[in-house]
Amino acid sequence: MPTVKTRTSDGTESWEDLADFHNTKEYGQYKIRKIQKTYSDFATAGTSKQVTLLTLNAKEEVVSIIGSVTTAFDGPATYTISTGTAGDSDALTTALSVKTTGIKDTRGANLTTNSGLFSVSATTDIIAEAVSTGGNLDTSTTGVIDFYITVAVYPS
């Protein structure tokens, strides 16, 4: 039996049998995008920098972002990366420590209690913001993070 992942208003997720959904039809699609960023993308003589990861079209919703640090970032004492929009840089993921390798999944408010659908009529830039303490971001000489972003595309 096919299953579908559901999320309640309190952010709880569960898998349910598709048979439990009466009169459902399949619309739209999901895309998983892999976007790689390195230490040089965030290099600046300062302690924060935003870079664009992708531009959502109208009626596209971010349903998941996972960060995978494949090469740890060096340099400043602390080095974190969050994702969201220019006006709310941690809407999708809160500060992910990139000083160690591994899968990073710290969901922001738009993936736990709100929605990753930012606009039904305009494009939205999804950004990653690096923030450091104990040194500028341009002191880093290594670091690679892959973002796996799942986007739902709704019909017009």
Notable traits:
4-stranded antiparallel β-sheet; 53% strand; mainly beta; 156 residues; Jelly Rolls; 2 helices
Number of helices: 2
Tell me the structural class: mainly beta
> How would you characterize the largest beta sheet?
4 strands, antiparallel
User: Can you tell me the number of structural domains?
Assistant: 1
Classified by CATH, the class is: Mainly Beta
Give a short summary of the structure.
The protein has 156 residues and is mainly beta. It has helices spanning 39-42, 109-112, and strands at residues 3-7, 13-17, 29-38, 48-56, 60-71, 78-85, 88-97, 102-104, 124-133, 144-153. Helices cover 5% and strands 53% of the residues.
Describe the structure.
The protein has two helices and ten strands. It is mainly β and 156 residues long. It has one domain (27-153): Cucumovirus coat protein, subunit A (Jelly Rolls, Sandwich). Strands 3-10-5-8 form a four-stranded antiparallel beta sheet. The longest helix is centred in the N-terminal third of the chain and has 4 residues, at 39-42. The two termini are 29 Å apart. Residues 18-25 have low confidence and may be disordered.
